[in-house]
Specification:
Layout lengths: L1 H28 L1 H4 L16
Length: 50
């Protein structure tokens, strides 16, 4: 049972480290995935006054 707990803990740490590495290195290798949408959206807003 202890080996299973250690394995789950190790895999959790590995997944967290991988996610952090992807956040830092991802924009360098996959810039299209991290780019914001490039279209402008205009929506009229009507404000009511009292």
């Amino acid at each position: 049972m202890w080996r299973l707990i250690k394995a789950v803990f190790f895999l959790t740490l590995l997944a967290a480290a991988s996610l952090i590495a992807y956040a830092y290195v991802g924009p360098i290798f996959f810039p299209a995935d991290f780019a914001p949408p490039s279209e402008q959206i205009n929506t009229p807003v009507v404000l009511e006054t009292n």
